[in-house]
């Protein structure tokens, strides 16, 4: 299989983007990625468009985005994997190159959530697990799903709500240094603790927001990559796994088995045996604050029950043992569902190139970054290792 590198990365501002339509917003990210790679639309052999919403303003987003961006008649497809959709689009583009069917491919993730009918996004996301069981019978929505995890973790390991809030404080702090982030102001612990409950013990400031945004990366085979840039960022490996949509079939609520499996695959492919020593910076799926703490453990940064200590000791800050979510994460940067995974890839590339603002630029010793993108409550999991 051909080696595959990221040679261009582009991002829009995340937040409430009622100023543009979905196609134009996608074009903002695509244009930035193409310019970063130093190529034009004609140089792209294939493009994958990640878009989740059944609420989307376009039922055929790959077609409309491609035409608007001047990519027609290149081959394309729409990709969906819930909140991991952006990573799934990258995987499709990666496989097109690795298989030899394309030399240059584009992966774009885009989501417009604010222009949907009132309440439609929240309702549809809320019942997107196992609709006929959890939602229809018990009214269980995604905040409720993650509240189960938070409650179980707190009870098992004597963790307090304040510990969860520390994740929000960290991620909003780094979001304040990210001009693309939805929220660019720090929050204090007392701000998080005084915010309203969404699903006990999770509060509003424990939760990621509704977001509009787009992100794109240009991928290339080794020969093309070395012609296009002196700083290719290689996709070293990617692990992919899935989990049951029925929570009654899960053994416990102390971790996401799909994340554990995806991480194991990615680590084998990248030759990682000690994540804390070999990974310089990570971007993980913090749709709720408990999700980031679970990710610490699912990814092997800490043993079961000890992930909370990493945030207590600020070991996931920029100068800690494993910097995590230095872009603000989903919590502060925002969570445009179809674009989130692609946005993580952009952050990994910028970090490895040393292009992040100094306040949130990690020290790159090994030249390795990791992204962890979850769909649903572990229904999908994508873990990708990037390297210089």
From TrEMBL:
GO terms for biological process: isoprenoid biosynthetic process. Residues 240-387 form the Thiolase C-terminal domain. Residues 4-223 form the Thiolase N-terminal domain. Pfam families: Thiolase_C_1, Thiolase_N. Transmembrane segments: none annotated. GO terms for molecular function: acyltransferase activity, transferring groups other than amino-acyl groups. It comes from the Archaea. Gene3D superfamilies: 3.40.47.10. This is Acetyl-CoA acetyltransferase. It comes from Candidatus Marsarchaeota G2 archaeon ECH_B_2.
């Amino acid at each position: 299989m051909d080696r595959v590198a990221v040679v261009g990365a582009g991002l829009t501002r995340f937040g409430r983007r009622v100023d543009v339509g979905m196609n134009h917003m996608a074009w903002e990210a695509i244009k930035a990625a193409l310019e970063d790679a130093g190529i034009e639309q004609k140089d792209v052999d294939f493009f994958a468009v990640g878009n989740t919403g059944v609420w989307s303003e376009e039922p055929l987003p790959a077609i409309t985005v491609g035409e608007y961006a001047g990519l027609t008649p290149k081959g394309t497809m729409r990709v969906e994997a819930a909140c991991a959709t952006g990573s799934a689009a990258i995987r499709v583009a990666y496989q097109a190159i690795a298989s030899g069917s394309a030399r240059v491919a584009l992966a774009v993730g885009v989501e417009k959530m604010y222009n949907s009918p009132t309440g439609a996004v929240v309702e549809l996301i809320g019942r997107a697990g196992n609709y006929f069981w959890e939602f229809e019978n018990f009214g269980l929505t995604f905040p409720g799903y993650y509240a189960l995890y938070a409650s179980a973790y707190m009870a098992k390991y004597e963790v307090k709500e304040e510990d969860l809030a520390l994740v929000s404080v960290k991620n909003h702090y780094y979001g304040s240094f990210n001009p693309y982030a939805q929220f660019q102001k720090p929050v204090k612990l007392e701000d998080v603790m005084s915010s309203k409950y969404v699903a006990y013990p999770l509060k509003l400031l424990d939760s990621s927001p509704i977001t509009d945004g787009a992100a794109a990366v240009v991928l290339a085979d080794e020969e093309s990559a070395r012609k296009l840039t002196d700083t290719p960022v290689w996709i070293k490996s990617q692990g992919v796994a899935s989990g049951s949509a029925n929570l009654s079939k899960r053994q416990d609520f102390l971790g996401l088995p799909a994340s554990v499996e995806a991480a194991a695959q990615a680590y084998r492919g990248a030759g990682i045996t000690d994540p804390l020593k070999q990974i310089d910076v990570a971007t993980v799926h913090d749709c709720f604050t408990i999700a980031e703490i679970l990710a610490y453990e699912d990814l092997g940064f800490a043993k079961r029950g000890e992930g909370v200590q990493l945030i207590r000791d600020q070991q996931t800050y920029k100068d800690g043992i494993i910097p995590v979510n230095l872009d603000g994460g989903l919590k502060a940067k925002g969570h445009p569902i179809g674009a989130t995974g692609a946005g993580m890839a952009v952050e990994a590339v910028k970090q490895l190139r040393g292009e992040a603002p100094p306040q949130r630029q990690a020290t790159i010793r090994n030249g390795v970054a990791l992204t962890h993108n979850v769909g649903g409550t572990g229904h999908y999991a994508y873990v990708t290792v990037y390297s210089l």
